[in-house]
Task: structure prediction
Amino acid sequence: MDRFRVRGGRRLGGSVRVSGAKNAALPALAATLLTDQPVTLNNVPGVNDVRTMFRVLEHLGAEAVVENGSSCRVRVGALKELEAPYDLVRKMRASVLVLGPLVARFGRARVSLPGGCAIGERPIEMHLAALRRLGATVELAHGYVDARAGRLEGAEITFEMKTVTGTENALMAATLARGSTVLRNCAGEPEIVDLAELLRAMGARIEGAGSDVIRIEGVPSLHGAVHSIVPDRIEAATFIMAGVLAGGSVSVEACRPDHLGAPIERLREAGARIETTETSVRVSGGFPLSSRDVVTAPYPGFATDLQAQYMTAMTQASGASVITEAIFENRFMHVSELRRMGADISHDGRQAIVKGRTRLTGAQVMATDLRASACLVLAALIAEGTTDLNRVYHIDRGYERIEEKLLALGADIERMKT
Ligand code: EPU
Result:
């Protein structure tokens, strides 16, 4: 269990390159199950969740070759297994993304039911309802989802509420179904658009990804493709916030500012100085911030995956800000850790009130989930003294070499092996 030791108060400057999006790489890797031909993915982030997905694919029988740091080639000929086992799914809920592709191409899938997780209950009944609508028989027994089908049949499916991986699972399954599928009330995250681009490159017929309604004309088979994963908007926004809080002048490169509308707007309203080009964001830190409320929402709203990091920013803003978590019921575990560093935050149910501006001081803190760890790293960068952040395996799930990137920007951060 590694930890980070951060000595706060260094001014950050220079440029940082954003990696490919974890949450786009995971469905893209699952999509390789849809064809027997090789799929090459570029700009794949070197994060542990991606490694777990490689393990899931290899367990199923894929040849996964990592060609260099960020490119991989996956070919799934015959399967060894039709099961994503408990040990892998419990490590990473997104393993459930293999369900749709397996049923669509092989007519059978067994996937361990993901349990609760640190940020809430997170059921998958909408994934299962969509597969049933496409003609699969889905049973739950012994902690597993067991889905069977002949060739799936196109259908009209309306999601009860927006679900990112639910939309992705249904989209992937429908590409190989007989006839037309219409998915309504779809999530519209850029990662879904990226998946649709890959699927289209593989021969799928898809229209409308990124909007509420996605139409898919099923095809009998898909083929190999080469695709580059979209930049990680959550990582980009995390570095933008680092720049706002601890810059200097920080340039966040290789990103998609058009995917960062909500966080950039909120931060600008709070007083941050942010300029964008088509592929980069320049942040000038050191300007006074004032509080701005935020309510998390599906894209293009303010991402729940940035709520914790934004909370750290609001500890440095004058006045009280109300942060409402509308997506997950239990995503405030970072509050008590931020308090240990001196933040003045109260929370009740889905609302937190952050009173700023507070002086943060280094402390021993514990990461509780991926994005919570990022908010503690941000807090540590501006705290007086030394912070030891324990359980950084959470951050390694989704941020590629974050300590090296921050070090290059001038932070005083080191990874300690324990
Ligand atoms: N939900 C249901 N039933 C379902 C599916 C979802 O009730 O069948 C609920 C969830 O409990 C939640 C809401 O719907 O309250 C939205 O969940 P969603 O299904 O959209 O989340 P997800 O697909 O499991 C993805 C990201 C998360 C991100 C959320 C929301 C991936 C692999 N994961 O999860 O990313 O927080 O969308 O944007 O894409 C992270 O990267 O740190 C992370 C948690």
